[in-house]
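Thread: beta-D-glucopyranose complex, take 2
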Amino acid sequence: MQSSDFGNDFLWGVATAAAQIEGAANDYGKGPSIWDTFSKRTGKIKKGHQPTLACDFYHRYLEDIALVKTLGFKVFRFSIAWARIFPLGHGSINPEGVAFYHRVIDECLMQDLVPMVTLYHWDLPEALSKEGGWTAFGINSWFNEYVTFCAKEYGDKVKQWIVINEPFGFTSLGYMLGVHAPGQTGVNNFFDAALHTAIAQADGAKILRAEVSSAVIGTAFSCSEVVPYTQSAQDLLAAKRTDALMNRFFFEPVLGLGFPTSDWEVLEKFAISHSTWRHQERMKFDFDFIGLQNYFPLVIRYNAFIPILQAWEAKAKNRKVPHTAMGWEINADSFYRIIKQFASYPQVKSIMVTENGAAFHDKVIDGKIDDRERIEYFEAYLSAMLKAKNEGINITGYLAWTLMDNFEWAEGYQARFGLVHNDFKTQQRTIKQSGYWWQQFLSK
Ligand code: BGC
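Output below.
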Protein backbone atom coordinates (compact mmCIF):
# COMPACT_ATOMS: atom_id res chain seq x y z
CA MET A 1 0.00 0.00 0.00
CA GLN A 2 1.19 3.50 -0.80
CA SER A 3 -0.45 6.89 -0.53
CA SER A 4 -0.97 7.16 -4.30
CA ASP A 5 -3.31 4.13 -4.09
CA PHE A 6 -5.83 6.58 -2.64
CA GLY A 7 -5.67 8.86 -5.69
CA ASN A 8 -3.87 12.13 -6.30
CA ASP A 9 -6.58 14.37 -4.88
CA PHE A 10 -6.80 12.55 -1.58
CA LEU A 11 -6.35 15.00 1.32
CA TRP A 12 -3.75 13.74 3.78
CA GLY A 13 -3.38 15.82 6.89
CA VAL A 14 -2.93 16.12 10.61
CA ALA A 15 -5.51 17.38 13.06
CA THR A 16 -5.06 19.49 16.20
CA ALA A 17 -7.26 21.56 18.52
CA ALA A 18 -6.65 24.99 20.07
CA ALA A 19 -7.04 24.12 23.76
CA GLN A 20 -4.76 21.12 23.35
CA ILE A 21 -1.81 22.92 21.76
CA GLU A 22 -1.94 26.71 21.87
CA GLY A 23 -1.13 27.68 25.44
CA ALA A 24 -1.08 31.48 25.97
CA ALA A 25 -4.33 30.74 27.72
CA ASN A 26 -4.45 34.03 29.62
CA ASP A 27 -2.43 36.14 27.25
CA TYR A 28 -2.88 38.54 24.35
CA GLY A 29 -6.43 39.41 25.26
CA LYS A 30 -7.83 35.87 25.31
CA GLY A 31 -10.70 35.25 27.70
CA PRO A 32 -10.77 32.08 29.80
CA SER A 33 -12.39 28.99 28.32
CA ILE A 34 -14.24 26.33 30.26
CA TRP A 35 -11.11 24.14 30.05
CA ASP A 36 -9.01 26.83 31.72
CA THR A 37 -11.39 27.00 34.66
CA PHE A 38 -12.31 23.30 34.80
CA SER A 39 -8.67 22.25 34.94
CA LYS A 40 -8.18 24.35 38.07
CA ARG A 41 -10.72 22.24 39.94
CA THR A 42 -9.04 19.65 42.10
CA GLY A 43 -9.13 16.11 40.85
CA LYS A 44 -10.64 16.85 37.45
CA ILE A 45 -7.49 16.40 35.34
CA LYS A 46 -4.89 13.71 35.93
CA LYS A 47 -1.91 15.00 37.90
CA GLY A 48 -3.57 18.41 38.10
CA HIS A 49 -2.34 19.31 34.62
CA GLN A 50 -3.64 22.50 33.02
CA PRO A 51 -3.70 23.73 29.40
CA THR A 52 -2.10 27.09 30.29
CA LEU A 53 1.06 26.45 28.25
CA ALA A 54 0.20 23.19 26.42
CA CYS A 55 2.57 22.96 23.41
CA ASP A 56 3.07 26.74 23.30
CA PHE A 57 1.87 26.60 19.70
CA TYR A 58 0.89 30.26 20.05
CA HIS A 59 4.58 31.16 19.97
CA ARG A 60 5.89 28.16 18.04
CA TYR A 61 3.37 27.89 15.22
CA LEU A 62 6.02 28.56 12.57
CA GLU A 63 8.11 25.60 13.71
CA ASP A 64 5.02 23.39 14.03
CA ILE A 65 3.59 24.22 10.63
CA ALA A 66 7.06 23.55 9.21
CA LEU A 67 6.83 20.10 10.83
CA VAL A 68 3.52 19.40 9.10
CA LYS A 69 5.25 20.21 5.86
CA THR A 70 8.35 18.15 6.68
CA LEU A 71 6.19 15.10 7.38
CA GLY A 72 4.69 15.49 3.92
CA PHE A 73 1.06 16.30 4.78
CA LYS A 74 -1.13 18.56 2.66
CA VAL A 75 -3.71 19.64 5.23
CA PHE A 76 -3.31 21.26 8.62
CA ARG A 77 -6.47 21.09 10.69
CA PHE A 78 -6.62 23.40 13.71
CA SER A 79 -9.41 25.00 15.68
CA ILE A 80 -10.14 28.59 16.57
CA ALA A 81 -10.41 29.32 20.28
CA TRP A 82 -13.72 31.14 20.52
CA ALA A 83 -12.51 33.05 23.63
CA ARG A 84 -9.45 34.32 21.75
CA ILE A 85 -11.74 36.05 19.27
CA PHE A 86 -14.55 36.99 21.66
CA PRO A 87 -13.08 37.05 25.20
CA LEU A 88 -16.60 37.26 26.64
CA GLY A 89 -18.13 34.92 24.07
CA HIS A 90 -19.90 37.66 22.11
CA GLY A 91 -19.83 41.42 21.72
CA SER A 92 -16.37 42.92 21.76
CA ILE A 93 -13.60 41.42 19.68
CA ASN A 94 -9.96 40.84 20.59
CA PRO A 95 -7.87 42.08 17.63
CA GLU A 96 -4.74 40.25 18.78
CA GLY A 97 -6.58 36.94 18.69
CA VAL A 98 -8.00 37.69 15.26
CA ALA A 99 -4.50 38.52 14.00
CA PHE A 100 -3.04 35.31 15.42
CA TYR A 101 -5.24 33.07 13.25
CA HIS A 102 -4.40 35.21 10.22
CA ARG A 103 -0.74 34.47 10.91
CA VAL A 104 -1.42 30.72 11.21
CA ILE A 105 -3.51 30.65 8.04
CA ASP A 106 -1.01 32.77 6.09
CA GLU A 107 1.83 30.50 7.13
CA CYS A 108 -0.12 27.44 5.94
CA LEU A 109 -0.73 29.10 2.60
CA MET A 110 2.91 30.13 2.34
CA GLN A 111 3.91 26.52 2.90
CA ASP A 112 1.36 25.35 0.36
CA LEU A 113 -0.67 23.60 3.04
CA VAL A 114 -4.47 23.61 3.07
CA PRO A 115 -5.73 25.24 6.28
CA MET A 116 -8.78 23.44 7.64
CA VAL A 117 -10.58 25.23 10.45
CA THR A 118 -12.70 23.67 13.16
CA LEU A 119 -14.98 26.30 14.62
CA TYR A 120 -15.75 24.54 17.87
CA HIS A 121 -13.42 22.03 19.46
CA TRP A 122 -14.77 22.08 23.04
CA ASP A 123 -13.30 25.29 24.48
CA LEU A 124 -16.40 27.35 25.15
CA PRO A 125 -15.74 30.84 26.58
CA GLU A 126 -16.14 30.68 30.35
CA ALA A 127 -18.25 33.84 30.24
CA LEU A 128 -20.89 31.95 28.25
CA SER A 129 -20.69 28.96 30.54
CA LYS A 130 -21.66 31.24 33.41
CA GLU A 131 -24.83 31.95 31.45
CA GLY A 132 -25.54 28.23 31.07
CA GLY A 133 -23.23 27.38 28.17
CA TRP A 134 -24.62 24.84 25.75
CA THR A 135 -27.70 24.34 27.94
CA ALA A 136 -28.66 28.01 27.59
CA PHE A 137 -31.23 29.19 25.12
CA GLY A 138 -28.93 32.06 24.07
CA ILE A 139 -26.13 29.77 22.89
CA ASN A 140 -27.41 29.54 19.34
CA SER A 141 -27.27 33.27 18.75
CA TRP A 142 -23.86 33.58 20.46
CA PHE A 143 -22.52 30.74 18.34
CA ASN A 144 -23.94 32.24 15.17
CA GLU A 145 -22.34 35.61 15.94
CA TYR A 146 -18.98 33.87 16.39
CA VAL A 147 -19.33 31.80 13.21
CA THR A 148 -20.43 34.79 11.15
CA PHE A 149 -17.39 36.72 12.32
CA CYS A 150 -14.95 33.89 11.48
CA ALA A 151 -16.54 33.23 8.11
CA LYS A 152 -16.31 36.89 7.08
CA GLU A 153 -12.83 37.36 8.54
CA TYR A 154 -11.11 34.22 7.27
CA GLY A 155 -13.39 33.02 4.46
CA ASP A 156 -11.26 34.52 1.68
CA LYS A 157 -8.34 32.33 2.69
CA VAL A 158 -9.94 29.28 4.33
CA LYS A 159 -12.14 27.01 2.23
CA GLN A 160 -12.19 23.82 4.31
CA TRP A 161 -14.38 24.07 7.41
CA ILE A 162 -15.56 21.80 10.19
CA VAL A 163 -18.39 23.29 12.22
CA ILE A 164 -18.32 21.24 15.42
CA ASN A 165 -16.00 18.56 16.71
CA GLU A 166 -17.73 15.49 18.15
CA PRO A 167 -21.00 16.83 19.55
CA PHE A 168 -21.64 13.61 21.42
CA GLY A 169 -18.18 13.77 23.04
CA PHE A 170 -18.49 17.15 24.69
CA THR A 171 -22.19 17.07 25.51
CA SER A 172 -22.04 13.64 27.16
CA LEU A 173 -18.70 14.02 28.95
CA GLY A 174 -19.21 17.68 29.83
CA TYR A 175 -22.93 17.99 30.54
CA MET A 176 -24.05 14.50 31.56
CA LEU A 177 -21.09 12.73 33.17
CA GLY A 178 -19.20 15.79 34.39
CA VAL A 179 -15.77 14.39 33.54
CA HIS A 180 -15.00 17.05 30.94
CA ALA A 181 -15.54 20.81 31.10
CA PRO A 182 -17.79 22.38 32.26
CA GLY A 183 -18.30 19.43 34.61
CA GLN A 184 -22.09 19.43 34.65
CA THR A 185 -24.12 16.31 35.22
CA GLY A 186 -27.56 14.93 34.60
CA VAL A 187 -29.66 13.86 31.73
CA ASN A 188 -31.60 17.13 31.57
CA ASN A 189 -28.43 19.16 31.06
CA PHE A 190 -27.36 16.70 28.40
CA PHE A 191 -30.61 16.90 26.46
CA ASP A 192 -30.75 20.71 26.61
CA ALA A 193 -27.12 20.92 25.44
CA ALA A 194 -27.74 18.30 22.76
CA LEU A 195 -30.66 20.11 21.17
CA HIS A 196 -28.78 23.41 21.01
CA THR A 197 -25.72 21.67 19.61
CA ALA A 198 -27.71 19.89 16.92
CA ILE A 199 -29.15 23.26 15.90
CA ALA A 200 -25.72 24.93 16.04
CA GLN A 201 -24.07 22.43 13.72
CA ALA A 202 -26.56 23.15 10.95
CA ASP A 203 -26.84 26.90 11.65
CA GLY A 204 -23.05 27.22 11.52
CA ALA A 205 -22.91 25.39 8.21
CA LYS A 206 -25.61 27.59 6.70
CA ILE A 207 -23.70 30.71 7.73
CA LEU A 208 -20.54 29.36 6.11
CA ARG A 209 -22.46 28.55 2.94
CA ALA A 210 -23.80 32.11 2.79
CA GLU A 211 -20.57 33.91 3.67
CA VAL A 212 -17.76 31.86 2.13
CA SER A 213 -17.59 31.36 -1.59
CA SER A 214 -16.63 27.84 -2.67
CA ALA A 215 -16.46 26.60 0.93
CA VAL A 216 -16.17 22.87 1.55
CA ILE A 217 -18.22 22.33 4.68
CA GLY A 218 -18.24 19.40 7.04
CA THR A 219 -18.83 18.59 10.66
CA ALA A 220 -17.15 15.87 12.67
CA PHE A 221 -18.70 12.99 14.59
CA SER A 222 -17.30 10.43 17.00
CA CYS A 223 -18.03 7.11 15.32
CA SER A 224 -17.68 3.76 17.06
CA GLU A 225 -18.96 0.45 15.86
CA VAL A 226 -21.20 -0.93 18.60
CA VAL A 227 -20.95 -4.69 19.06
CA PRO A 228 -23.22 -6.65 21.41
CA TYR A 229 -21.29 -8.70 23.96
CA THR A 230 -23.49 -11.73 23.39
CA GLN A 231 -26.44 -12.45 21.14
CA SER A 232 -28.86 -12.36 24.10
CA ALA A 233 -31.92 -10.18 23.55
CA GLN A 234 -30.84 -7.91 26.40
CA ASP A 235 -27.35 -7.35 25.00
CA LEU A 236 -28.71 -6.79 21.50
CA LEU A 237 -31.11 -4.12 22.75
CA ALA A 238 -28.42 -2.52 24.89
CA ALA A 239 -26.18 -2.30 21.81
CA LYS A 240 -29.00 -0.79 19.77
CA ARG A 241 -29.64 1.92 22.37
CA THR A 242 -25.93 2.71 22.55
CA ASP A 243 -25.67 2.96 18.78
CA ALA A 244 -28.66 5.33 18.69
CA LEU A 245 -27.05 7.53 21.31
CA MET A 246 -23.41 7.45 20.27
CA ASN A 247 -23.54 7.22 16.49
CA ARG A 248 -26.94 8.29 15.27
CA PHE A 249 -28.04 10.95 17.73
CA PHE A 250 -26.28 13.99 16.25
CA PHE A 251 -25.75 12.57 12.78
CA GLU A 252 -29.30 11.75 11.69
CA PRO A 253 -30.70 15.25 12.39
CA VAL A 254 -28.29 16.79 9.84
CA LEU A 255 -29.58 14.34 7.26
CA GLY A 256 -33.11 15.56 7.90
CA LEU A 257 -34.11 12.41 9.77
CA GLY A 258 -34.54 14.07 13.17
CA PHE A 259 -33.34 12.40 16.35
CA PRO A 260 -33.39 8.58 16.31
CA THR A 261 -36.27 8.22 18.72
CA SER A 262 -37.98 5.08 17.52
CA ASP A 263 -35.51 2.62 19.02
CA TRP A 264 -35.61 3.88 22.53
CA GLU A 265 -38.42 5.38 24.56
CA VAL A 266 -36.07 7.68 26.53
CA LEU A 267 -35.18 9.45 23.32
CA GLU A 268 -38.83 9.59 22.40
CA LYS A 269 -39.59 11.34 25.70
CA PHE A 270 -36.76 13.79 25.04
CA ALA A 271 -38.18 14.50 21.60
CA ILE A 272 -41.61 15.19 23.07
CA SER A 273 -40.40 17.32 25.98
CA HIS A 274 -38.17 19.41 23.71
CA SER A 275 -40.59 19.46 20.74
CA THR A 276 -37.69 18.50 18.54
CA TRP A 277 -39.94 18.11 15.51
CA ARG A 278 -40.21 21.90 15.47
CA HIS A 279 -36.48 22.09 14.77
CA GLN A 280 -36.20 19.23 12.28
CA GLU A 281 -35.81 21.51 9.27
CA ARG A 282 -33.37 23.81 11.06
CA MET A 283 -31.12 20.91 12.15
CA LYS A 284 -30.73 19.74 8.58
CA PHE A 285 -27.84 20.66 6.29
CA ASP A 286 -26.49 19.17 3.11
CA PHE A 287 -22.87 18.81 4.22
CA ASP A 288 -20.17 18.50 1.58
CA PHE A 289 -18.50 15.91 3.76
CA ILE A 290 -19.16 14.04 6.94
CA GLY A 291 -16.16 14.04 9.25
CA LEU A 292 -15.73 10.55 10.65
CA GLN A 293 -13.56 10.17 13.75
CA ASN A 294 -12.82 6.71 15.02
CA TYR A 295 -10.76 5.51 17.94
CA PHE A 296 -12.33 2.25 19.12
CA PRO A 297 -15.24 -0.12 18.76
CA LEU A 298 -17.51 -0.56 21.74
CA VAL A 299 -18.50 -3.98 23.03
CA ILE A 300 -21.70 -3.42 24.95
CA ARG A 301 -23.51 -5.54 27.50
CA TYR A 302 -26.77 -5.05 29.30
CA ASN A 303 -26.34 -3.64 32.78
CA ALA A 304 -29.39 -2.95 34.92
CA PHE A 305 -27.43 -0.75 37.33
CA ILE A 306 -26.66 1.92 34.77
CA PRO A 307 -29.48 4.45 34.84
CA ILE A 308 -31.40 5.09 31.62
CA LEU A 309 -28.99 3.50 29.14
CA GLN A 310 -28.85 0.19 31.04
CA ALA A 311 -25.77 -0.73 29.12
CA TRP A 312 -22.08 -0.71 29.83
CA GLU A 313 -18.84 -1.32 28.02
CA ALA A 314 -16.95 -4.61 28.25
CA LYS A 315 -13.47 -3.07 28.37
CA ALA A 316 -10.85 -4.22 25.88
CA LYS A 317 -8.35 -4.95 28.63
CA ASN A 318 -10.77 -7.37 30.32
CA ARG A 319 -11.51 -9.05 27.02
CA LYS A 320 -7.75 -9.44 26.49
CA VAL A 321 -7.74 -7.94 23.01
CA PRO A 322 -4.98 -5.60 21.73
CA HIS A 323 -5.44 -2.10 23.06
CA THR A 324 -3.74 1.30 23.19
CA ALA A 325 -2.35 3.11 26.23
CA MET A 326 -5.85 4.57 26.67
CA GLY A 327 -7.23 1.03 26.96
CA TRP A 328 -9.00 1.39 23.62
CA GLU A 329 -9.34 -1.69 21.45
CA ILE A 330 -7.20 -1.75 18.30
CA ASN A 331 -9.37 -3.13 15.55
CA ALA A 332 -8.93 -1.98 11.96
CA ASP A 333 -11.78 -4.19 10.69
CA SER A 334 -14.10 -2.32 12.95
CA PHE A 335 -12.86 0.95 11.41
CA TYR A 336 -13.78 -0.46 8.00
CA ARG A 337 -17.26 -1.41 9.25
CA ILE A 338 -17.98 1.97 10.85
CA ILE A 339 -17.00 3.72 7.61
CA LYS A 340 -19.51 1.47 5.85
CA GLN A 341 -22.16 2.20 8.45
CA PHE A 342 -21.89 5.98 8.07
CA ALA A 343 -21.60 5.77 4.29
CA SER A 344 -24.72 3.63 4.03
CA TYR A 345 -27.03 6.66 4.30
CA PRO A 346 -27.89 7.84 0.77
CA GLN A 347 -27.81 11.49 1.90
CA VAL A 348 -24.06 11.29 2.61
CA LYS A 349 -22.08 12.79 -0.27
CA SER A 350 -18.62 12.02 0.99
CA ILE A 351 -16.71 11.02 4.07
CA MET A 352 -13.49 12.45 5.34
CA VAL A 353 -11.73 10.71 8.20
CA THR A 354 -11.07 13.84 10.22
CA GLU A 355 -9.38 12.06 13.17
CA ASN A 356 -7.88 8.66 13.81
CA GLY A 357 -4.82 7.74 15.85
CA ALA A 358 -3.59 6.16 19.05
CA ALA A 359 -1.74 6.79 22.30
CA PHE A 360 1.07 4.42 23.24
CA HIS A 361 3.81 4.31 25.83
CA ASP A 362 6.49 5.39 23.40
CA LYS A 363 10.01 4.12 24.09
CA VAL A 364 13.35 5.72 23.40
CA ILE A 365 15.69 3.20 21.77
CA ASP A 366 19.13 4.31 20.53
CA GLY A 367 18.11 7.93 20.83
CA LYS A 368 15.07 7.40 18.62
CA ILE A 369 11.44 7.49 19.69
CA ASP A 370 10.52 4.00 18.75
CA ASP A 371 6.76 3.81 18.42
CA ARG A 372 6.42 0.80 16.18
CA GLU A 373 2.99 0.04 17.66
CA ARG A 374 1.75 3.32 16.22
CA ILE A 375 3.24 2.48 12.81
CA GLU A 376 1.47 -0.88 12.85
CA TYR A 377 -1.71 0.85 13.89
CA PHE A 378 -1.62 3.27 10.95
CA GLU A 379 -0.69 0.53 8.49
CA ALA A 380 -3.68 -1.56 9.55
CA TYR A 381 -6.14 1.34 9.69
CA LEU A 382 -5.09 2.81 6.35
CA SER A 383 -5.45 -0.52 4.59
CA ALA A 384 -8.93 -0.92 6.11
CA MET A 385 -9.79 2.52 4.76
CA LEU A 386 -8.39 1.62 1.35
CA LYS A 387 -10.58 -1.47 1.29
CA ALA A 388 -13.67 0.67 1.95
CA LYS A 389 -12.57 3.19 -0.68
CA ASN A 390 -11.96 0.50 -3.28
CA GLU A 391 -15.45 -0.80 -2.66
CA GLY A 392 -16.73 2.53 -3.91
CA ILE A 393 -17.14 4.65 -0.77
CA ASN A 394 -16.36 8.26 -1.50
CA ILE A 395 -13.64 8.96 1.06
CA THR A 396 -11.91 12.23 0.31
CA GLY A 397 -9.24 12.48 2.98
CA TYR A 398 -7.66 11.26 6.17
CA LEU A 399 -6.30 13.36 9.03
CA ALA A 400 -4.08 11.67 11.58
CA TRP A 401 -4.59 12.51 15.22
CA THR A 402 -2.29 14.22 16.00
CA LEU A 403 0.71 16.32 15.02
CA MET A 404 2.38 16.27 18.43
CA ASP A 405 1.83 15.09 21.99
CA ASN A 406 -0.47 17.58 23.63
CA PHE A 407 -2.97 18.33 26.39
CA GLU A 408 -5.23 15.30 26.22
CA TRP A 409 -8.22 16.77 28.11
CA ALA A 410 -8.92 14.93 31.38
CA GLU A 411 -5.85 12.74 30.82
CA GLY A 412 -3.58 15.80 30.98
CA TYR A 413 -0.18 15.49 29.34
CA GLN A 414 0.23 11.79 30.03
CA ALA A 415 -1.54 10.32 27.02
CA ARG A 416 0.68 10.79 23.99
CA PHE A 417 -0.99 10.64 20.58
CA GLY A 418 1.59 12.61 18.57
CA LEU A 419 3.61 11.77 15.49
CA VAL A 420 6.04 14.20 17.05
CA HIS A 421 7.18 13.85 20.64
CA ASN A 422 6.94 16.92 22.82
CA ASP A 423 9.06 17.41 25.90
CA PHE A 424 6.71 19.53 27.97
CA LYS A 425 9.57 20.89 30.12
CA THR A 426 11.61 22.28 27.25
CA GLN A 427 9.02 22.29 24.44
CA GLN A 428 11.54 20.40 22.34
CA ARG A 429 9.87 18.60 19.42
CA THR A 430 11.31 15.29 18.19
CA ILE A 431 9.86 13.42 15.24
CA LYS A 432 8.90 9.88 16.26
CA GLN A 433 9.54 6.88 14.04
CA SER A 434 5.86 6.98 13.11
CA GLY A 435 6.38 10.53 11.85
CA TYR A 436 9.19 9.29 9.61
CA TRP A 437 6.95 6.42 8.55
CA TRP A 438 4.34 8.96 7.39
CA GLN A 439 7.00 10.95 5.58
CA GLN A 440 7.97 7.83 3.62
CA PHE A 441 4.39 6.78 3.04
CA LEU A 442 3.38 10.17 1.69
CA SER A 443 6.33 10.37 -0.65
CA LYS A 444 5.03 7.49 -2.79
C1 BGC B 1 -11.02 14.51 20.17
C2 BGC B 1 -9.59 14.94 20.39
C3 BGC B 1 -8.92 13.98 21.35
C4 BGC B 1 -8.92 12.59 20.75
C5 BGC B 1 -8.23 11.53 21.57
C6 BGC B 1 -11.17 13.04 19.95
O1 BGC B 1 -12.35 12.63 20.47
O2 BGC B 1 -11.58 15.23 19.11
O3 BGC B 1 -9.56 16.25 20.85
O4 BGC B 1 -7.64 14.37 21.73
O5 BGC B 1 -10.26 12.21 20.60
O6 BGC B 1 -8.86 11.35 22.79
